[in-house]
Write a structure and sequence with these properties.
By secondary structure, this protein is mainly α. The chain folds into 2 domains: about 90 residues, no CATH class; about 260 residues, no CATH class. The chain has 13 helices and no strands. Helix 6 runs antiparallel to helix 9 and helix 10 crosses helix 11.
Length: about 400
């Protein structure tokens, strides 16, 4: 093991030896090294979050035929730091009658729920927080903290509009977690493991090829889970003021905003890991661990760009339409896809890779065509019913 091939572990072992040389016992030295590693990861992720603010504003400016940040620093790169200073010096307002402990804890928990996800995100074969054998379950559990933060913020604000906005957002987030969890089981079935690192290592053929329908369901569910357009009812200014965080100001509101941007990029990373081979790319990841990290970051940024593309293109939909899309279409389709994938994986196991890939891909195509045909039949049936009602009303009016 040398610094070139494994820089993170070599640096960790060096620090551990330094701490032991200072008279610290081995368990305490190991714990301190892990603590410093976690602190370094959080610091880098928060710096990345600042960069994402600039990226988001530049991208939306291009979509809306504007320039975006261009005054503070070259290309406006220092503008996010100016915004952070502005948020810090803004007056921190706490509503009268608010539960101060829960009110102040909610934005911290919202951002922490995103940072916790980076503990299981494999940046390369050698750079990762922890290789959990139940990482898929951890992904769902850590994401649930964001839902808890929303209801905490809405309830503790002592504002009925904030509470209603929180109820509506939580209903949306919990609903779309169902198809997301079901789709997360598909890479688990294909790999035979819930470890994200194992999923990447065994992904010789990108899973987006084997289960493109699963990727689409995961993308839609992730956007709804993030609360970004067209599922951005957590803001919905035209309907219910500014949603669950209406009473937050200054840096507390900034934590919600930072958590949303970082969450979107993090889901871009998980899309890369689950469906696009993670840090692997035609053997380039073997050059150096940092090259593998760069590959994953580029894939995550592309996924984040797709999420932004959808956000600034598709208008917001009503909550009844949103929940109907989930419970009447996405959830049944996700369960059907899970069953079909499990059966095809069992039947085609042991065959040639191209036969296996083609069989799974075609099964997705057939399932999608069947689902679209069912939707068309349902639409025709509903149209006939509405036409029959209109005809009856017209005949009654004629008499």
């Amino acid at each position: 093991m040398n610094f070139w091939t494994d820089p993170v572990n070599v640096a960790a072992e060096w620090l551990k030896d330094v701490f032991i040389g200072w008279g610290m016992t081995d368990p305490y030295a190991t714990a301190l090294v892990y603590l410093l590693g976690a602190f370094l990861l959080v610091a880098l992720v928060m710096l990345l979050d600042v960069f994402l603010v600039w990226v988001e504003r530049k991208v939306v400016a291009r979509f809306q035929d504007r320039i975006g940040p261009n005054r503070v620093g070259p290309f406006g790169l220092i503008q996010p730091f100016a915004d952070i200073i502005k948020l810090i010096i803004k007056e921190d307002i706490t509503p009268a009658g608010a539960d101060k402990v829960v009110y102040n804890l909610a934005p911290v928990l919202s951002l922490a729920s995103v940072l916790l996800l980076w503990a299981i995100l494999p940046l390369s074969a050698l750079v990762y927080g922890v290789d959990l054998n139940v990482a898929v379950l951890y992904l769902v559990a850590a994401g649930a903290l964001g839902t808890l933060a929303v209801i905490m913020a809405g309830w503790s604000s002592n504002n009925k509009y904030a509470l209603l906005g929180a109820f509506r957002t939580v209903a949306q987030m919990i609903s779309f977690e169902i198809p997301m969890v079901v789709v997360l089981l598909i890479p688990t079935i294909l790999t035979g493991s819930m470890s994200l690192k194992t999923i990447v290592e065994r992904q010789d053929i990108w899973y987006v090829v084997l289960t493109p329908l699963g990727f689409v369901i995961f993308l839609i569910s992730a956007i709804a889970e993030l609360g970004r357009a067209p599922f951005d009812l957590n803001e919905a200014e035209s309907e219910i003021v500014a949603g669950f965080h209406i009473e937050y100001s200054g840096m507390k509101f900034g934590l919600f905003y930072a958590g949303e941007l970082l969450h979107a990029f993090t889901f871009g990373g998980f899309m890369a890991v689950l469906f696009f081979g993670g840090y692997r790319f035609f053997g380039l990841e073997q050059i150096h661990p940092l090259v593998a990290v760069l590959i994953l970051m580029v894939k995550a940024l592309l996924g984040y760009w797709v999420i932004m593309w959808i956000k600034y293109t598709v208008p917001r939909i009503r909550i009844d339409h949103m929940l109907a899309l989930n419970w009447k279409f996405l959830t049944p389709l996700a369960f059907a896809l899970l069953v079909v994938t499990a059966v095809m994986h069992r039947l085609l196991g042991g065959t040639q890779p191209w036969v296996y890939a083609l069989g799974l891909f075609l099964s997705n195509v057939v399932l999608l065509l069947a689902a679209l045909e069912i939707l068309r039949a349902s639409a025709r049936r509903q149209r006939r019913q509405e036409e029959a009602v209109l005809s009856a009303v017209a005949e009654t009016a004629g008499h």
